[in-house]
Amino acid sequence: MFDIMVVFPYYKPLLEGLFTTLWVSLLSIFMGFFLGLGLCSLRNAQSSALRGMTRIYISFFRGTPLLVQLAIIFYFLPLIDIFIPSVIAAVMALSMNTGAFQAEILRGGFRGLPKGQLEACWTCGLTQNQTYWHIQLPQVIKMTLPALVNETIDIIKNSALISTIAVVDLMRIAQTYSSTTYRPLEFFMAAGILYLLLTVLVSFIGKKIEYKLSNL
C-alpha cells in the first residue's frame, strides 16, 4: 500500500540531494551562459574554420543525448590519464550541453536587435566592447529571458541523469533509499515533488525578474 509517510525519516538526505541538484544546475547554467556567449560570437567569426567548428560543437551537444555526453566525459578522460571527481564531470557536461542551447538562444536575441543600432553607437563614439556589453547584451538578455529560464528548468530536470555517474544528487538519494526500503514509489514520488517545487520556484523568480526588466 502506498504510504508517503515512509519518506519523512529520510528528509535530511533528500534535502541534501536537492541542494546538490540545485547548485550543480545553477553553476552549470552560469558557466554555460558565458560559453554560449563565446559560441555565439564564434558563429559570426571571420574564419570559416572557426564558424564550422562552432556549428559542429553546437550540433553535437544539441543533437546527442545528455546521458551520452556524461558518459563520454566521465569515462573517456581517465583513458588519457585525466581523473576528475564525478561532480566536476557532471558540471562540465551540463555546462557544455547548456552552452550549446544558450548559444542559439542568444544568437536569436542578437539577430532581433535593430540593424541601425550599431551605426548609432559608433556615431556616439562607443567602442565595439562598450556597445556589446552595455548596449546590445542587456537588450538580448531582456528579450531572451523567458527562453533562458526555460533552459534553466530543463537543466534542473536533466540533472537527474548525473546520478548515473555516482553524483549524490536528489535522484541518487531517491534511488538509494527506494532500494534499501523497497518503497520505490514513495521515494520517486517525493523526488518528483521536490523537482517540481524547484522548477516552479525558478519559474517564479524568472517571471519576477522579467516583470522588473519590462518596467525599466
UniProtKB/TrEMBL annotation:
Its main location: membrane. It is found in: Cell inner membrane; Cell membrane. Residues 18-206 form the ABC transmembrane type-1 domain. The chain crosses the membrane at residues 20-42, 54-76, 82-101, 187-206. CDD domains: TM_PBP2 (cd06261). It is a multi-pass membrane protein. It comes from the Bacteria. Keywords: Amino-acid transport, Cell membrane, Membrane, Transmembrane, Transmembrane helix, Transport. InterPro entries: AA_ABC_transptr_permease_3TM, ArtM/GltK/GlnP/TcyL/YhdX-like, MetI-like, MetI-like_sf. Pfam families: BPD_transp_1 (PF00528). The keyword Membrane applies. Part of the binding-protein-dependent transport system for glutamine; probably responsible for the translocation of the substrate across the membrane. Belongs to the binding-protein-dependent transport system permease family. HisMQ subfamily. This is Amino acid ABC transporter permease.
